[in-house]
């Protein structure tokens, strides 16, 4: 399968600080990759290298020609103080195609409406973005990413702060977009349990290092215990994988307190 | 009363140019939560004027006392670039603290320099503003500055909006976020540096904040905010000015009082809109 993005012995960081060193992996066309790990471990650093806003300190990150990202930022990173209608926000996904000195055309508006229909909120086009629920806001941001006609959909913590229902709906929508539109998807999350049941592959980014593989490869007690540094159990329920960290023993806690 | 106002019509025209320009830029200032950048830049401009007067009085740089605009502009633009690049964020200082430092130091420096400038008393009016002193030439200068700025804002509306609303996504779409931010701050510095010399720090700050707040309270779209902001600034300038002349009130505070009244009137309207 064609590789869209290739990390070749890439060392990533900021200034003199190295966050991740010597990582190599490919993201092929049609992949659904979950980039999973705790905050501060380097997920965002890898994401920035993929999006091209961070240049590797060593090694290379190469991208296929004509690659176009549809980026869905963390929901709270946009400023809801701006009095913007949902349609206005979705149109932003076409701004770079529209170019300087020009305003969105009817065709751009039609595409924005179609993108909203595609994610199931076509009826909310004229609503204020700030008035929407968390799940609806996320759908609007996904529509904005789709309206730019991307090859790769990139989502940064799409379910952060959402309840069970919204989380399930958003992850279901992303999975549907991947399958229905054959869209390559890269999803960043700290919630391993959520991601593991929707993606095809997982890239685990933790303090102890970086490991990438299929869900079956990564979701083993051995791998996760090694990577997270604490004993974990991996179980399966109704076809869903569940990771549970074993509860610390009281005597070990006492020993730590002492 | 009308004849008295007509006597000062040139000043009113100048005030209107300042009101319109500041109320347009003020929409970004308020929505981006950088209102004190406006105050700090105005204060930096005044410090620039004070330095020009001080140096001119000392004879260090001859002729500058008569042309303090260059110093005002240099200080405002330097400040705009500094704040536009994130201030002292890289050094770990929160942006609002950096703005506070800039404001306090510039204000104190301006007062100290003016107190020791030979022509200080005569030019003290530069710091507090003198709307009534605006001449036709001053208005033409203000137009020469503000028209290109407003045209730039109309042309680059998409870009300014995008980098203000969601800079991370703008960056991923290839936008040079730092460039657009700096351009936005540059236009802000440019307008403030010139407006401040006639309107003073307090009135410029008012035009940057209150009309946009009124717009934010009454409108539910970006075009609506811009429209209400400009209209309320124009109304405040005309009404405040018209009341100040016959009643012998200071023009700046009179205009600010009307701006404040408009914002206060907009408040219950907003509350009713939300309930309705």
Structure overview:
The complex is a heterodimer of chains A (258) and B (276). Chain A has helices at residues 43-51, 86-91, 95-98, 106-118, 134-147, 164-180, 192-196, 215-218, 221-228, 250-257, and strands at 3-14, 17-28, 32-36, 58-63, 69-72, 152-156, 184-189, 201-206, 209-214, 232-237, 240-245. Chain A is an alpha/beta fold and 258 residues long. In chain A, strands 5-6-7-3-8-9 form a six-stranded mixed β-sheet, sandwiched between helices. Chain A has a three-stranded antiparallel β-sheet with strand order 2-1-4, covered by helices on one side. In chain A, strands 10-11 form a two-stranded antiparallel sheet. Chain B has 276 residues and is an all-alpha fold. Helix content of chain B is 81%, strand content 0%. Chain B starts with a helix and ends with a helix. The model of chain B has no long low-confidence stretch (mean pLDDT 89). The interface between A and B is medium-sized, with 28 and 27 residues.
Shape of chain A: globular
Helix/strand-derived category of chain B reads mainly alpha
Shape of chain B: globular
Name the helix and strand elements of chain B from N-terminus to C-terminus, one letter apiece: HHHHHHHHHHHHH
User: Radius of gyration of chain A, Cα only, in angstroms?
Assistant: 20 Å
- Overall residue-averaged pLDDT value of chain A: 91
| Topology pattern of chain A, helix = H, strand = E | EEEHEEHHHHEHEHEEHHEEH
Q: What strand order characterises the main sheet of chain A?
A: 5-6-7-3-8-9
Mean pLDDT score of chain B, rounded? 89
Biggest β-sheet of chain A: count, sense, barrel?
6 strands, mixed
CA(first)-CA(last) distance of chain B: 42 Å
- Let me know the largest β-sheet of chain B: none
Helix content of chain B: over 70%
Most extensive contact: A-B, 28 and 27 residues
Supply the number of helical segments of chain A: 10
Strand-pairing-aware structural class of chain A: alpha/beta
Question: Helicity level of chain A, as a percent range?
Answer: 25-40%
Radius of gyration of chain B: 19 Å
Strand content of chain B: under 5%
């Amino acid at each position: 399968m064609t590789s869209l993005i290739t990390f070749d012995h890439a060392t990533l960081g900021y200034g003199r600080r190295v966050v991740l060193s010597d990582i190599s992996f490919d993201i092929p066309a049609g992949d659904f990759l979950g980039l999973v790990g705790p905050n501060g471990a380097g997920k965002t650093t890898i994401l920035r290298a993929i999006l091209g806003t961070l240049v590797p300190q060593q090694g290379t990150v190469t991208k296929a020609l004509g690659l176009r990202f549809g980026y869905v930022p963390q929901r709270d990173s946009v400023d809801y103080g701006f009095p913007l209608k949902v349609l206005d926000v979705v149109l932003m996904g076409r701004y770079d195609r529209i170019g300087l000195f020009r305003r969105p055309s009817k065709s751009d508006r039609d595409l924005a409406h179609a993108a909203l229909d595609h994610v199931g909120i076509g009826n909310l086009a004229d609503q204020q973005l700030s008035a929407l629920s968390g799940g609806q806001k996320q759908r609007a941001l996904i529509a904005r990413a789709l309206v730019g006609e991307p090859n790769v959909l990139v989502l940064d913590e799409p379910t952060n702060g959402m309840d069970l229902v919204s989380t399930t709906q958003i992850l279901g929508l992303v999975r549907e977009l991947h399958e229905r539109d054959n869209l390559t998807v890269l999803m960043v999350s700290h919630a391993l349990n959520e991601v593991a049941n929707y993606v095809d592959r997982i890239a685990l980014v933790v303090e102890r290092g970086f490991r990438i593989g299929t869900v079956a490869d990564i979701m083993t007690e051995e791998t996760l215990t090694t990577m997270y540094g604490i004993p974990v159990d991996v179980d399966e329920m109704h076809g869903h994988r569940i990771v549970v960290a074993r509860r610390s023993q009281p005597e070990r806690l006492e020993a730590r307190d002492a | 009363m009308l004849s008295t106002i007509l006597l000062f019509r040139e000043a009113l025209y100048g005030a209107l140019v300042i009101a319109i320009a500041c109320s347009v830029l003020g929409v970004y200032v308020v929505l981006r939560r950088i209102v004190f950048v406006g105050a700090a830049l105005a204060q930096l401009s005044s410090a620039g004027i004070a330095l020009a007067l001080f140096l001119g009085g000392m004879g260090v740089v001859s002729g500058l006392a008569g042309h303090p605009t260059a110093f005002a502009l240099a200080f405002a633009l330097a400040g705009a670039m500094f704040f536009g690049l994130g201030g002292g964020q890289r050094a770990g200082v929160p942006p609002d603290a950096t703005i506070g430092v800039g404001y306090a130091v510039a204000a104190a420096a301006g007062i100290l320099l003016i107190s020791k400038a030979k022509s200080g008393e005569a030019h003290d009016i530069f710091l507090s503003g003198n709307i009534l002193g605006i001449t036709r030439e001053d208005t033409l200068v203000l137009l020469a500055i503000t028209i290109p700025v407003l045209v730039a804002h109309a042309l680059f509306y998409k870009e300014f909006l995008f980098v203000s609303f969601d800079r991370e996504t703008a960056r991923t779409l290839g936008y040079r976020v730092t460039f657009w931010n700096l351009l936005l701050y540059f236009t802000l510095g440019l307008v403030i540096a010139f407006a401040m010399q006639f309107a003073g720090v307090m009135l410029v700050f008012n035009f940057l904040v209150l009309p946009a707040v009124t717009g934010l309270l009454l409108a539910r779209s970006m075009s609506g905010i811009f429209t209400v902001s400009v209209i309320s600034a124009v109304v405040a300038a005309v009404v405040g000015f018209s009341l100040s002349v016959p009643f012998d009130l200071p023009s700046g505070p009179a205009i600010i009082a009307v701006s404040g009244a408009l914002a206060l009137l907009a408040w219950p309207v907003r509350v009713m809109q939300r309930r309705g």
